Structures are given as C-alpha cells and as structure tokens.
Amino acid sequence: MLNIVLFGPPGSGKGTQAEKLIKKYNLIHISTGDLLRSEVANKTSLGMEAKKIMDAGELVPDEIVIGMIRKKLEEHKSGPGFVFDGFPRTVEQARELRKALTDYDERVTMEISLEVPREELLKRLVKRGEESGRSDDNEQTINNRIDVYERQTVPVTYYYEKMHKHVPVNGIGTIDQIFKRIVDAVEGFEKFHEPKA
User: Fold this and answer.
1) What are the residue numbers of the active site?
2) Higher pLDDT residue, 31 or 169?
3) Rounded CA gap, 52 and 108, in Å?
4) Edge-first strand listing for the sheet containing 110-115
C-alpha cells in the first residue's frame, strides 16, 4: 500500500494536490472533516457521539476520530492505499495512526509537506477572499490560521523526520509543476525504500 500523509498550510493548494494524487495512484482519500460529516449524516454511533460533542462547541477527541479512521481502513484494507488529509494534527494522533495501520500490517509510507512562504499564502488567501467573499479570508484571520497550523504540525513533521519519512516539497509554481514535484518525491522515495533483493 502507498499511504501518504499530506500536509500544507492554508492556501498551499493541498486540497487540489490531494485530488490529483488520489486520481494518479487510485488512493482512498481520508479527510477527518469528511469522515465526521459522513458519520453524522449516516447517524452511526460514532457520528452521534461526535455530533453531541460538536454541538457543545468542543473538539472531537482523538479516540473518536481514530475510531472513524479504523473503520475506513477496515472497509478498504485490500485497497492500493490512502491519502491522509488534515490528519494527524498532533504527535499523539500520529502515534495512534501508526498503531491503527500496524494492526493491518501497514505503515505510513511518507509524509509530504507543501512548503510555501507566509507572504505567498497571505497573497493567495486574501485574493481568494476577495474573489469568493469568504469572511474568514482576511489578513488577521489568515495569519492566525497559519500560526495554528505551524504550532500543530511542526512537531508532527519532526516526528516523521525522525522516522526518515518527512519529505518537504516546494509549493510555489503552477498546479502541474507542484504536482510533478510531488510525483517525483513519491516515486523517488518508493524506489529508494524498496526492499533489496
């Protein structure tokens, strides 16, 4: 299986690149936001539990999120692999993901991090806000979202770095240029780490 953890700050184009990766390698997309919405819509026991917590304005605890991810792994255990999008957000979640994958005799292949300077992110998101009228795309909110992303994810990238799985990718350029860098990173990494005969 090819299991990719995809990171990128708000405005890095992570969603677009995730879609391209999924198409190219026929991977299953795991986005915790989508999983939560789907479990709530289907009124599953995990979904009902999560809804109660979200309705109270609280963050859904890791064990519920991991429960949903385990369910998805179980449904697609003979598939080609996964793109984990927006997860893990903390080192604790990264450890839990590792345990869940190990139960299926799987592992995270690599963690790809789209690197885009803050000035460029601000420029992209302010422009997006002007075009779409999204009220959360103003400079103060954007800076805050980038700060939160950096606080949460920097420790996670160190976690994968220690395991020699962290791969930074330059996120500046056209969608296709960036995607080519991601594909080169995936194929170079896979080749380098394939078992020696």
Assistant:
1) 14, 89, 128, 134, 145
2) 169
3) 31
4) 28-31, 81-85, 2-7, 110-115, 166-170
pLDDT in tens, 151-173: 888 899 999 999 999 999 999 99
Domain annotation covers residue 39: yes
Residue 62 tokens read as 């890791």
Please give the pLDDT value at position 88.
93
On whether the CB atoms of residues 10 and 138 are closer than 8 A, the answer is: no
pLDDT of 45-91, one tens digit each? 888 988 888 888 777 888 888 988 998 999 998 889 999 998 898 89
In-domain check, residue 146 = no
Number of domains in the chain: 1
| HSE of 36, CA atoms in CB hemisphere, 13 A | 20
Q: 110-115 and 2-7 as β-strands: parallel, antiparallel, unpaired?
A: parallel
Q: Domain with 182 in it: what CATH number?
A: 3.40.50.300
Q: Which residues of 46-72 are buried (b: 16+ CB within 10 A; e: fewer)?
A: bbebbbeeeeeeeebebebbbbbbbeb
